[in-house]
Amino acid sequence: MLKRFLADESGATAIEYGLIAALIGVAIVGGASATGTAISELWSGNESKISEVLNN
Questions:
Q1: How many CB atoms lie within 10 A of CB 34?
Q2: Residue 18 gets which letter from DSSP?
Q3: Alpha helix stretches (DSSP H) within 1-56
Q4: How far apart are CA 48 and CA 55, in angstroms?
Q5: Looking at residue 30, what is its pLDDT?
Q6: How far is it, in rounded angstroms, from Cα 22 to Cα 16?
Q7: CA distances to 8, 11, 32 from 37, in Å
């Protein structure tokens, strides 16, 4: 029984899948953050151009 318990690797597989899922989550958060910053800069530039046109 002890040999079978020590040879069982199903827990290790679950941990590996958990680590892969965590890395994918970190990549998604990083990508979303970068995209959000780029969109924010885009709209900020548009806002200043629109204000400039309306004030003239």
A1: 10
A2: H
A3: 2-7, 10-55
A4: 11
A5: 94
A6: 10
A7: 46, 39, 9
Q: In the prediction, which pLDDT does 19 show?
A: 94
Residue type at 30? G
- Terminal-residue alpha carbon distance, the chain: 84
How far apart CA 29 and CA 36 sit, in angstroms, is 10
Threshold 0.70, pTM exceeds: no
Instruction: Read off the amino acid at residue 39.
Output: I
Spell out the per-residue pLDDT of the chain, length 56, in tens.
777 876 777 777 888 899 999 999 999 999 999 999 888 888 888 888 888 888 87
